[in-house]
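This entry is listed as follows:

___
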Amino acid sequence: MQMRLKNGKTKVLTLSYDDGVVQDIRLIEIMDKHGLKGTFNINSGRYLSEDTVRERFYGRLKLSEAQQLYTNSGHEVAVHALTHPSLEKLDTAEIIYEITEDRKAIERHYGTIARGMAYPYGAYSEKVIDVLEKCQIAYARTVESTYAFRFPENWLKLHPTCHHNYEKLDELIKRFVETPNRFNHPEMFYLWGHSYEFDRHDNWDVIEKFAVYAGGHEHIWYATNIEIYDYVKAYERLQTSYDKRIICNPSSIDVWVDVQGEVYCVKAGETINI
């Protein structure tokens, strides 16, 4: 038996963008137009002051702008530490403060449970990971590109496929979209970055071209980071008989499985005999 993804698919695509900046407005418009989904990692201690008059379309969002943009958008809002420090340089109490205060603010501002995270500057250590576990953070994204389509072994070391400025992005996404999965093993394409970089490098065409090509494929599941995490964990919670002919799903998420080439949906709370 092996995992299939939502609706029996074998590929999933997700995006992750950091800091909560005004360029996220344009990015989300592009993502929504082409059916892409992703996660936006917020420093809730660094919103722009509400009384600031923005002279140009640049910088961080005001809290009111962020709430209007992200709340009920279909995209995930996740932790990025309260003030964006290098967490591995802090002592344990400071790390706890940065994570818990950011998480509490996000949950208060957006009416969501914040369980995911991206490491500020991509910096982490085993001490940081230990703190995240205690703070009930489910996953944390690094900036270490794999240039591959695999799922993480450790969700607190969630390495992305690549940054959007990777010079072979077109080649990589084409391989993901068009190449059949080897042995039907599920694959994940994970793109990350900062949306202000599109203005800085004058290359909005990169993400627009990516979205046009990557979106709208029936064989790909488009999901947020936490949706992927929860789905994988639901699959791992499946209970089976020794011969895999009886499968019980104790979770609240429908799960699809491949048993000797046949695909089955095991609905939430259901036990099936095959």
